[in-house]
Amino acid sequence: MELNSRIPEGPIEEKWDNHRFEMKLVNPSNKRKYSVIIVGSGLAGASAAATMGELGYEVKVFTYHDSPRRAHSIAAQGGINAAKNYQNDGDSIYRLFYDTVKGGDFRSREANVYRLSQISLDIIDQAVAQGVPFAREYGGMLANRSFGGAQVSRTFYARGQTGQQLLLGAYQALERQVREGKVKVHNRAEMLDVVVVDGVARGIVVRDMLTGKVERHAADAVVLATGGYSNVFFLSTNAKACNVTATWRAHRRGAGFANPCFTQIHPTCIPPSGDYQSKLTLMSESLRNDGRIWVPEEAGDERRAAQIPESERDYYLERLYPSFGNLTPRDIASRRAKEMVDAGHGVGARKNGVFLDFSHAIDRLGRETISERYGNLFAMYEKITGEDPYRVPMRIYPAPHYTMGGLWVDYNLMSNVPGLFVIGEANFSDHGANRLGASALMQGLADGYFVVPMTIGNYLAKVTPGQVDDDHAAFADTERDATDRVERLLAVNGTRTVDSFHIELGKIVWEACGMSRSEKGLKKALERIPQLRDEFWSDVRVPGSGDNLNQSLEKAGRVADFMEFAEVMCHDALARDESAGAHYRVEHTTEEGEAKRDDENFAHAAVWEFNGVGEAPTLHKESLEFEYVELSQRSYK
Amino acid sequence: MKLTLHVWRQTSHTDPGGFQRYDAPDISADMSFLEMLDVVNERITEHGGEPIAFEHDCREGICGSCGMMINGVPHGPKTMITACQLHMRSFNDGDEIWIEPWRANAFPVIKDLVVRRDSFDDIIAAGGYISVRTGSAPDGNAVPVPKVYADEAMDAATCIGCGACVAACPNASAMLFTSAKVAHLGQLPQGQTERWDRVLNMVEAHDDAGFGNCTNHGACQLACPKGISVDYIAQLNRDLVRATLRARPTG
């Protein structure tokens, strides 16, 4: 597997500019001859589709939803970072770049992160012009809030629904191109495989979810914008349908999977209330601006929050990290919460959470201000738990939320399979071992609006349009593979439901490869996962047929891929014999209990090559050079 | 708690469909409504049946996927929430619950509780946007937007496109949905240039999709999980009148 990151020459501030000049362009009148497939319609996919449509390419978008607007980006709450420095508090492109590299615990690619910081400015401008109703100050200027891992206020937001508003902006831009006839949206079409012809991505195979018909679609380039794989844990904050299938299938066809073990556990989610729990709900990290996190000092304290006097509360983040306090990065806040709960300080009936307390903020700022800032989050919390956070502290606990790992891409966001581009959460490039809050929206939109529409032109300029059409043998083979698999799933006719397998897999992965990982646990998981996969294929029950809407069948295909993917995730966690960011190996901690990196041996992206189901994958490395941000132990004290 | 469900089952658009009864004897008050359906579906599957098809995704009230009539009310008995945010503590032991899909000509049933809502996309494609090419935007602070306008635009923009307004309306009108987008964009300085064409085109697409006309019942506002106000329909009507009068004759 060849891994050439294609980072442009020159000083970091000039790389993207230089590259844009050096890239080949497609003549405007020729653009309509090129077709591009985009899979996924979230922030990255919708913005890429809209922009490429504007540029003149023939774009086809595929989504398994009934409308592009339902993609899971819609659920992002807190905000989007940009180095605008509107607050005049010392922010700059360089600072956002620095914070992101440091926050990612030095496991991301400097050149990509710098470009992301540069582009962050344009994203805000673009969104405002589209009518995204960002929060404003009374003078009419854009408002900002702070987020974890930063000491400046650079987060733009639309109440607690920033993802929704940004996605609707991108979706509307996409629908405009639909009206223009430049983009064709295929709703309820699930991608089952990538078609690779002589090592080059030429199209995809999809299943029409209403008729069950498996269809071929050819194009000059394929863009995957299919999000992350947190649902490998079963319980996560991701929407129920989020899955690894598109990226996993691409991996099986030759695309390297980078850093699959870098998964983010979000510190502020509502703890599970019972075994029937189907997903976890996130409470925006922005709550940590005004909420204070604490647990009872004494383990096993049964008193209600109001009965515990100040002197018997442990505001452990403020105690351990005086300068960042409640705004430490996510990995640290999560791990410390787990420690507190494991040590018996957990709160709530199941003792599975910590308090996030707004009483001080309400005293200081008034109920109205707090309601203005977080009203919808408070309402959401009350609906789920039946408790009123204006009166009693919220209970929170970490939950899987975002995956930094993803398909390996070069500076152009192209995987090692020519013609296959990967954008947004689906790629690995910008967040290293830990993503900072409000940076996912930034990356999705940077990739979609500003990066891939440019870099794909450079690729297309070198290929003849329409070289391979969908009657090529590779399309027929790939279609047959996909059809066979659907038939196999329906034919097992065993005794256990798909969900029961997913829940069991999720528990294995959460215990071995969740918030803390150990050699012993990972090795055990690597023994157990293949067994469970065999049980799945011999005992799963998928009711119904393949020729109409069959939600059990859809789930079964996704879970089958998670069963394969979980292995490479554990292999990666085992091979990365260091702690870094969200990847916390119990064998490697500093004296203060922080993740202890091993830069000498692990300053690389681990890129895995598929060798067959159940076969150990092959590890390749892209070494990471840090020319601008000095490698250091992160300190948020 | 012990519940009895009557769920609408329908294999396809052409199948007449009908209610089927299910016992749900072991429901916890802390479950969400959809988790309750999960439990029922697991049991149906284990007993060799086909589970009830229903749409859902984020399960936190923002994606707009879920939507069903629960005892004749869109999203169930509580106001300002979606079905996925409804918890079983809103019901009592022994309750009978009737669950049906959205009923509207413009939302044909696909299967069980799943309906086709593509027409919402068509309404947006007709003009629910501001035409600004990527990269051509001025600085975000170049045009100040008074906070009150930004807040009002946000109130309208919170629509999740679930379709409850249509399901609640005796005319199956999607005017609340359409007006929310007209009001969101029409409130902002950036949305002025296309304001009049937008409202004409979106209303035309709304009518073409087979939605009924608004006759000011106001049921949509009550059903809306995001509290979108019928005031926006009034605003749409004002814009529509102005736009119609301004419209240049064609041909």
Structure report:
The complex is a heterodimer of chains A (637) and B (251). Chain A is of the alpha+beta class and 637 residues long. Among the domains of chain A are: 269-400, Flavocytochrome C3, Chain A, domain 1 (Alpha-Beta Complex); 473-601, Methane Monooxygenase Hydroxylase, Chain G, domain 1. Helix content of chain A is 37%, strand content 14%. In chain A, a hairpin with a 2-residue loop joins strand 6 (189-197) and strand 7. Chain B is an alpha+beta fold and 251 residues long. Chain B has two domains: 3-110, Beta-grasp domain (Ubiquitin-like (UB roll)); 118-246, Fumarate Reductase Iron-sulfur Protein, Chain B, domain 2. Chain B contains eight helices and seven strands, in the order E-E-H-E-E-E-E-E-H-H-H-H-H-H-H. In chain B, helix 5 runs antiparallel to helix 6 (195-208). Chain B is elongated and about 60 Å long. The chains are: A alpha+beta (637), B alpha+beta (251). Chains A and B meet through helix 2, helix 4, helix 5, helix 10 and helix 11 of A and helix 1, helix 2 and helix 3 of B.
